[in-house]
Automatic annotation (TrEMBL):
GO molecular function: diacetyl reductase ((S)-acetoin forming) (NAD+) activity
Reaction(s) the record says it catalyses: (S)-acetoin + NAD(+) = diacetyl + NADH + H(+)
UniProt KW keywords: Oxidoreductase
Protein name: Diacetyl reductase [(S)-acetoin forming]
Pfam families assigned: adh_short_C2
């Protein structure tokens, strides 16, 4: 049997990239998928490609009213919400002294506040079902240092995950965080960074970067009943980098 058969899954920032792969994997496991993204054109295009069991909702993840609209729309269409994947995120590679407060707060709002809002607004539905799974995409930089702003928020996601898991566990709602390392994306294949990436691979114990599917496989596991006793935990996909 497919692991997510008939489960309703919301994935933020899913019009492209890692979120899109999470959506494809969830659909292949029998889920009904809601992809949300700020990019309307790309989101609609992606949902059409994914087929009849996928819908798109335009969504500013830092906006509380948008979150309420997503939850009410999904409940109206499918009558339940089984899984929330807080995937949307951004980063800037800007030195501390050059990072403006406006840019810093944009990172905080998209990476951190959105996770709070997602968990807050989906909790009522999941409590009424006495079941649910929330998967917060953090980063290896939620465990070790990295870029200012990005690291701060990814540590916060890790902390919120633990706090929410303790509060929601009595309602059979599991909350876990996923911590990807370096992921193979088109950006890593650009000529100006290829050599840098090759050198960095030598510092990874497994001597390679992760494929996007490897992150999605972890997300599907945590969304499924196979992870029924896992909550408040960090699931690291970094080839051993943070073990050094």
């Amino acid at each position: 049997m497919k692991r997510l058969k008939d489960k309703v899954v919301i994935i933020t920032g899913a019009a492209q990239g890692m979120g899109k792969m999470h959506a494809e994997k969830a659909l292949s496991e029998g889920a009904k998928v809601v992809i949300t993204d700020i990019n309307k054109d790309l989101g609609l295009q992606t949902s059409q490609i994914l087929g009849e069991n996928a819908i798109f909702i335009q969504h500013d993840v830092a906006n509380e009213e948008h979150w309420s609209n997503v939850i009410s729309t999904v409940n109206e269409k499918w009558g339940r919400i089984d899984v929330l994947v807080n995937n949307a995120g951004i980063t800037y590679s800007t030195p501390l002294e050059e990072l403006s407060l406006a840019s810093y707060m944009k990172i905080v709002n998209i990476n951190q506040v959105s996770v709070f809002l997602g968990m807050k607004t989906v909790a009522e539905t999941m409590k009424s079902q006495n079941a649910g799974a929330i998967i917060n995409i953090s980063s290896m930089n939620g465990l070790v240092g990295g870029a200012i702003g990005y690291t701060d928020t990814k540590f916060a996601v890790r902390g919120m995950t633990k706090a929410a898991s303790r509060e929601l566990s009595p309602f059979n709602i599991r909350v876990n965080s996923v911590h990807p390392g370096v992921i193979q994306t088109p950006m890593l294949e650009q000529e100006d960074v290829k050599e840098q990436v090759e050198q960095f691979k030598k510092t990874i114990p497994m001597r390679r970067v992760a494929q996007v599917e490897e992150v999605s496989n972890m997300v599907i596991f945590l969304a499924s009943d196979e992870a029924s006793y896992s909550t408040g935990a960090e699931f690291v996909i970094d080839g051993g980098l943070t073990a050094l």
